[in-house]
Give the backbone structure.
Amino acid sequence: MIYTVTMNPSIDYHVWIKTMVEGTIHQAQKEWKTAGGKGINVSKVLRNLGSVSVALGFVGGFTGSFIRQQLDQDGIEHRFIPVTQDSRMNIKIKAERETDLSGVSPLIPKVAINELMDQLDHLTSDDFLVLAGSVPASVPADIYRIIMQRMNQLGVRVILDAKGAALDNALAERPFLIKPNHYELGELFGASVETTEEAVHYGRRALDLGATNVIVSMAGQGAVFVNREKAFAAQFPKQQAVNSIGAGDSMVAGFLYAYTRGQQVKEAFQLAVAAGSTTAISEGFCTPEKIEAFLPHITITEL
Ligand SMILES: Nc1ncnc2c1ncn2[C@@H]1O[C@H](COP(=O)(O)OP(=O)(O)O)[C@@H](O)[C@H]1O
Ligand SMILES: O=P(O)(O)OC[C@H]1O[C@](O)(COP(=O)(O)O)[C@@H](O)[C@@H]1O
């Protein structure tokens, strides 16, 4: 089974305006509201692709009820732990450029964290665990490292999609896969990662720090995959992004979907790129049909 953990779920409020002018009132042209947060997005894309997963994490208040309802409607099993304060709302303003405003996280009491740990202690070596997204301020900053230490004892493979300290301090626990974007990878090493060569170089340094497989996403410029045996670069024709929110999460889901069906890392990487790109260039998340149509446009080069 695949489990996803979203420590900090959200309602993502996507709103389209013509032009953003600071200090003025804007009339929205279009809007939509979805249950968000990186682990939840991974569960949604896995569901689109036909894979079952269980979504875990903390939700609370009226926003938390919305998140639960949406997952119920989508047919995604969830075992969220309730907290008292409202789950956050993240605003995604789409004008000439995209501007994000991430809301304040609810307080997560220690008892809720212990409950999550109890849930995770039931996982087995057949399971994959996705730890994705930010960690609320009230949760220990090294929670991913702590969870991974426990998962290593159980033989659970962990996919870690985090940045900053949450990524840095968990790498030594040997995540099965990490998927930083090129900024996040650069931040890890205090470097700038702009080119394929730099992505491969710093991706390999992440292997030295403990990661088993690394995908470096580079938005519209492509992506890179490295592990101890292989290195690949993915290229695709330049496209206008329509909605890049969840593109990275779609990559994680695409890789997992293919890998858990026995595909080799090269094919899993290609599917990851197709999933990320078709999410980025469409309004909703990727679908199997869109992925199928996009796959032939991806060139994978072994480096
Ligand atoms: N403009 C675009 N055209 C095509 N694919 C895109 C575009 N922007 C993002 N993608 C796809 O989505 C993936 C993840 O995007 P990226 O922005 O790097 O990740 P994140 O959402 O984690 O920041 C990229 O590797 C690529 O496959
Ligand atoms: O937990 P974080 O890092 O604040 O990210 C949460 C946000 O990221 C998203 O999961 C989108 O992530 P990506 O665009 O990186 O795939 C949104 O749904 C959510 O609002």
About this structure: The chain has two domains: 1-21+29-150, 176-303. The CA atoms of residues 174 and 210 lie 5 Å apart. The domain at 1-21+29-150 is CATH 3.40.1190.20 (UDP-N-acetylmuramoyl-L-alanine:D-glutamate ligase).
